[in-house]
Every structure is written in C-alpha cells, then in structure tokens.
C-alpha cells in the first residue's frame, strides 16, 4: 500500500541523503565511492539483499557513482517496502 505524504515525510527524516522523487513517486539517492570496484561491490551487496527481499531498485552506475531510485510499481508508488530497502542499502554502503 502506498505511503501517505505524512508517512513518506516521517520516513525520509530517518533516511539522510534520500530525497523524494515526485515524478516516480519514489525516493532516490546517489552514492559515491573511491573507485569502480568499490561501487560494484556495493551494488553486489545490494543486489543480494534486494533479491532476498524480492524488491529491486532502479539504478545506474557510472564509474564510482551509483544512482538508486526506489518505488513499488505494483502499488503505484512509494511503499514501506521501499523504505525498508533504503535502510538495507544504507547499511550496505557503510559495509
């Protein structure tokens, strides 16, 4: 179920660096690493966690940068699944 505006705003206060992307009705964040290998290792950690959660990000990678967008297409926008995955992604970034 889609989050209300208030639920979204409350969740974003707990997710520094993530921003609401209105066009996608999702949240996005850019991660930067020392080099491509670090960025790829991060993406691998996220991919394994996302597969386990059966919820997959939209993302792109250019050298040391990884841009991620989270939205739940089947529910038409931002849901608790996106917030939960954002928290997992933040942990993966600091691993």
Written account of the structure:
This protein has 95 residues and is α+β, with helices and mostly antiparallel strands. It is 43% helix and 22% strand. It is built from three helices and four strands. Helix 2 runs antiparallel to helix 3. The chain starts with a helix and ends with a helix. The model has no long low-confidence stretch (mean pLDDT 96).
Features:
single chain, 95 residues, alpha+beta, 4-stranded antiparallel beta sheet, 3 helices, 4 strands, globular
Topology:
Blueprint: H1 5-13, E1 19-21, E2 26-32, H2 36-53, E3 58-62, E4 65-70, H3 80-93
Antiparallel strand pairs: 1-2, 2-4, 3-4
Count of strand segments: 4
Order of strands, main sheet, comes to: 1-2-4-3
Q: How much strand content do the residues show?
A: 15-25%
Number of helices: 3
Give a short overview.
With 95 residues, the chain is an alpha+beta fold. It contains three helices and four strands.
